[in-house]
Amino acid sequence: MAAKVVTLVAALATTMGLAAAVGSGSASAFPSPRPNKIGWVNACGMPGSIQVRAWTRPGNRKTVVLLDGLRAQNDFNGWEINTNVQNMVNYGVNVVEPVGGYESWYSDWNAPDNFSGQKFRYMWNCVITRSLVGWMDGQGLRGPSGRYAIMGLSMGGNAALVIGANNQNSFDRAGSLSGYLNLSAPGMREAIRLSMIFPIIDGGTPAMNSDAMWGPPWSTRWLDNDPFVQINKMHTLKKVYVSAGMGPLRGDDNFWANPMTLIQGTPLELLAQAQGRSFQVQALINRVPIQTYFPLTGAHTWNNWQDSMWNALRTGFFN
Predict the structure, then answer these.
(1) Do 170 and 148 contact (CB within 8 A), yes or no?
(2) pLDDT value for 266
(3) C-alpha separations of 255 from 152, 203, 264, 314 in Å
(4) N or C: which end of the chain has fewer CB within 10 A?
(5) Which residues contact 47 (CB under 8 A, 6 or more apart)?
(6) Is-contact 268 299, C-beta < 8 A?
(7) 301 near 253, Cβ under 8 Å?
(8) Bridge partners for 33 per DSSP
(9) Whole-number pLDDT of residue 181
(10) Residue 37: phi, psi to the nearest 5?
(11) Nearest-CA neighbor of 95 among 143, 129, 146?
């Protein structure tokens, strides 16, 4: 029965445009302060360099890397455009945001994307785990624990848990906000494929091919990037944080300004919460030190993710 529910919700989410609004936003908002550090890191064979924007303060005891969502832009990370979580720098936590990664799942792809005509292979796992970590080390940001935290929303939440599970020399905490944490569930791989093929709801941004990313749905690379499968590696992390709302809009979500936040955001968030709760059970079975936040309101929106980040700070995730 549970599998049928997940399949139904996944199909509905795909029909509504899975993660169509994730990681997108107008660069006119900017509730956050400007970063005090801006750097450029090696792109691991991709063209150019990757911009890193950071908010740091001497004496802060923790540094968190924030990953964007599916529609990540090349000018700013969506966290900077749409939230105020950079102010956590005033509460003991440095905030580091790499820029870019559109539809990449922050992974090293199998091949160049043939749908968009991309001539290079995405190498975002390399960027995060090597180039970005090296840059942060050079800035002296490891802090007393000697390791970093990594968190992300939706696509970035999936990647944050996978990166944390497989790079524990660099990361001791990993968090997913409204992430899809069981890619092996019925309908999920097809939903991801369709969400990457049909991004036209966002205004014509290019479609990309999930076969170029991790191969066909039966490829083991899907398992390598599935947090539910990788969970047995997470028991030695200090903390794992998982959050997702119940779907209804919060009071600070302006439905009249963007009615699609309800139409798209509710089924997307319900799916994320269903998978988050299943992940929680599996985490407890595997003795993973999990911390969860499942508020009664909150759709697939930036207000929800911003609140989830501040909840993580309030409840000691970074301690």
Answers:
(1) yes
(2) 84
(3) 24, 20, 12, 28
(4) N
(5) 120
(6) yes
(7) yes
(8) none
(9) 98
(10) -135, 130
(11) 143
- As a three-state string, the secondary structure of the chain is CHHHHHHHHHHHHHHHCCCCCCCCCCCCCCCCCCCCEEEEEECCCCCCEEEEEEECCCCCCEEEEEECCCCCCCCCCHHHHHCCHHHHHHHCEEEEEECCCCCCCCCECCCCCCCCCCCCCCEHHHHHHHHHHHHHHHCCCCCCCCCEEEEEECHHHHHHHHHHHHCCCCEEEEEEECCCCCCCCCCHHHHHHHHHHCCHHHCCCCCCCHHHHHCCCCCCHHHHCCHHHHHHHHHHCCEEEEECCCCCCCCCCCCCCCCHHHHCHHHHHHHHHHHHHHHHHHHHHCCCCEEEECCCCCCCCHHHHHHHHHHHHHCCCCC
Q: Which residues of 253-271 are buried (b: 16+ CB within 10 A; e: fewer)?
A: beeeeeeebbebbbbbbbb
Tokens 């801006």 correspond to what residue?
38
**Residue 28: how many CB atoms within 10 A of its CB?**
6
Grouped pLDDT means (10 residues each) for the chain, 319 residues: 44 41 45 93 98 97 97 95 97 98 97 94 98 98 96 98 98 98 96 82 75 96 98 97 88 67 79 97 98 94 95 98
Q: What is the pLDDT of residue 247?
A: 82
Residue keyed to tokens 């999920």: 188
Q: What digits encode the pLDDT tens for the residues 185-234?
A: 999 999 999 989 876 555 557 899 999 999 999 999 999 999 999 999 99
